[in-house]
Amino acid sequence: MTNTQPSHLDNRPVGQHLILVGNGDSHLHVAAHAERLVQRGARVTLVTRQDFAFADWLGGMLGGEWQLDDVRLPADRIVAHGGEHVAAEVVQVDRQQRRITLEDGRQLDYDWLSLDLPPVVDEHAIPGFYTAKGVFTASADDLWILRQRLETQLAGATGDLPSIAVIGNGPTAVELAANLLALGERYGRRLTVTLVGNDRRPLPGACQRANRWLLQRLHRRGLRLELVATATRYDRNQLILDDGSGVDADLLLVTEHLRPSPGLTPFGLETDGNGRIAVGPALRSREDPRLFLARGLLADLAHPPTTRERAALLLEALDQTLSGESRTLRYDQFERWKALNLGDLRDIAWRGSLWCRGRWVRRWKHRRDRREVAHYLGNA
């Protein structure tokens, strides 16, 4: 996509240079509020070839509510918020000199570096993964391909429909499973969908009543639930669980069993046995204090932070670093109402022990989401 960087940025006095590498969800939030960092005297540069995807609409896109072009947000709109966009990939990093080299040979010096590169499926996590008829991640492109594939079969008057297993825990896996059901409901046909996760509650951060209502709702719509279960292997169109039972699954939708993006390799960061990179409470690398990792491993958490909580934490940490302030930051400082699109007009929202559900939740979520998208796009 064309870089529409405004000319006035070329003449701006250069202060601290913050480079954002990657098109992850947290960087979308930072890009939408880049003016806040610019006001701290920083020059903010986003380096990515790919556009952003609005995470809160991915479930709805899978369920037939949104189109792919709706959820894609141009990376170069960061210029509307005082930042710059460079459409390139990083091929070499000199952390000692604080310099990155791009694929076209250009070099950029930085004071601070933030990495947010979407992960990829770990093909070795579950033996037999790629003998399935299709393996998909929760990325916008993968979900769009899965939806098109399913719609082709749903639109046919005859023929068996594929069975689908959603492997993962937490809100993302629940929302995707619910919207697969919704996609079948749009065509008046039922898709066989199973949610496989090792948590006892589908929404670990919500209260027991909210989880009970959600389970009952999904069960009535035909979702098969395999909770407190772990997939051990895939064999002949079945996902084999740790108790030896099998789940019919022609297609796999994976929200866990992921490994860091290959794009992190040039940065030379140490990883644990699972390929994860440890960070401090403010998402700052323990190995290099000049680096922030939006997807780094936060230790000793009761349940993983949501996408929105990570994004808010990263923005606050960058703002604090640029301003020279020193405050203790924790992801739970940014806890807000969370909402899921269940694909049947009766969405659910929760915050700690509080929760609600119904059509008005859907309306509130739509207003919030549309406001955020409009803010990022500016006058586009």
From TrEMBL:
Leader sequence range is none
Q: Which GO terms describe its biological process?
A: aerobic electron transport chain
What residue stretches are annotated with the FAD/NAD(P)-binding domain? Answer: 88-293
Keyword Flavoprotein set for record: yes
Q: Which cofactor does it need?
A: FAD
Which Pfam families does this one have?
Pyr_redox_2
Q: Which UniProt keywords apply?
A: FAD, Flavoprotein, Oxidoreductase
Q: Which GO terms describe its molecular function?
A: NAD(P)H dehydrogenase (quinone) activity
Q: In terms of domain of life, where is this protein from?
A: Bacteria
The name of this protein is FAD/NAD(P)-binding domain-containing protein
